[in-house]
Amino acid sequence: MDLRAETREFLTTRRGRITPQRANLAAYGGNRRVPGLRREEVAMLAGVSVDYYTRMERGNLSGVSEEVLESVAEALQLDEAERGHLFDLARAANASGAARSRARRAPTPVLRPAVQRIVDSLDAPAFVRNGRLDVLGANLLGRALYAPLYDSPTHAPGQPVNTARFQFFDPEGARAFWGQKADRMAHDAVAILRAEAGRNPYDRRLTELVGELSTRSEDFRRLWASHDVRYHRSGTKVFHHPAVGMLELDYEALVLPADPGLQLNVYTAVAGSSSADGLALLASWAATTLADGRAASAAGATSETS
Q1: Measured between alpha carbons, how far apart are the two ends of the chain, in Å?
Q2: For burial by CB atoms within 10 Å, which of 70, 73, 151, 279 has the most?
Q3: 125: buried, middle or exposed (CB in 10 Å: 19+, 13-18, 0-12)?
Q4: Do the Cβ atoms of 177 and 239 come closer than 8 Å?
């Protein structure tokens, strides 16, 4: 990722969305040449010189203090994810050459067997993903819930399911699965990838994924250009599952401290709700469909090696 370009576009797009009225500034003159604040207005709100802020917006965050970053974040009314992204960009810009080399050589996080056992022990749909939106492991209910992704032509055998690939390379499947929320899910997927790019700008596999998505999907290019970022921590999702119908599930995303970059996502339904009944039906479907398929695959593998 080009850190200077990323910083420039991020700050420019954030500035462009803040009107003088929203910033409680008097809008002098009836013909403003920019849709949002001027650079000098952001500089004034942040308490820095126009030249200093201009240098930042041109992509140079070298030597910028946390106090100035906080002031700029407040002036631009950044939310938590946006503020975190700005600090990630500054951290990368100020990293030493040795630190950048270590980041480039860092091994890709993998799912440890102990974590998979924890996932398997949960009586709810659960899976572990990385910042690139690769699903590295799931329990039987999680696999059942995400069956449309596993069955999609975007999923290559032996490779992890990737929710962004499903979203943009199988748009009909994504719209059938997410329903009216498909556009929102697409936006969130891109915003999560953008935030990850700020945290790990030297992740070669992330760069390759973004390049492929940009080349093959006009919708992805449009959303990527917005420079929106998002944290994926908790909320509610609606699924239109081909086997059990509509499921409205709450999710919690739990980071794994021993495995930086990985998080455990768990879905639950309100007790007594139709979605709780749907999850019970999904568990039955998984036990009779997916579990039998796993057993057959295992038996086939055993016979081949005997």
Answers
A1: 49
A2: 279
A3: buried
A4: yes
One digit per residue, the tens of pLDDT, for the chain of length 306 reads 789 999 999 999 999 999 998 998 876 555 677 779 999 999 999 999 999 999 999 999 999 999 999 999 999 999 999 999 999 999 999 988 877 777 777 777 889 999 999 999 999 999 999 999 999 999 999 999 999 999 999 999 889 999 999 999 999 999 999 999 999 999 999 999 999 999 999 899 999 999 999 999 999 999 999 999 999 899 999 999 999 999 999 999 999 999 999 999 999 999 999 999 999 999 999 999 886 555 444 434 434 443
229: amino acid identity, one letter: V
Q: Which of 112, 93, 89 is nearest to 260 (CA)?
A: 112
Tokens of 101: 């080399």
Which residues, other chains included, contact 50 with Cβ-Cβ below 8 Å and sequence gap of 6+?
Answer: 39, 40, 43
- Cα 246-252-255 angle, rounded to 5 deg: 140
CA nearest to 45, candidates 84, 75, 6: 75
List the alpha helices (DSSP H) in the chain.
3-16, 39-46, 50-57, 66-75, 80-93, 97-105, 113-121, 140-145, 147-150, 163-169, 171-178, 182-199, 204-216, 218-224, 274-285, 291-305
184-213 b/e (C-beta count within 10 Å ≥ 16 → b):
ebbbbbbbbbbbbbbbbbbbeebeebbeeb
From residue 274, alpha-carbon distances to 148, 224, 270, 279 in Å are 21, 36, 9, 9
The answer to whether 86 and 42 have CB atoms below 8 angstroms apart is no
The single-letter code of the amino acid at 69 is L
Token pair in block for residue 198: 């700020």
For the chain, the C-alpha Rg in angstroms (whole number) is 22
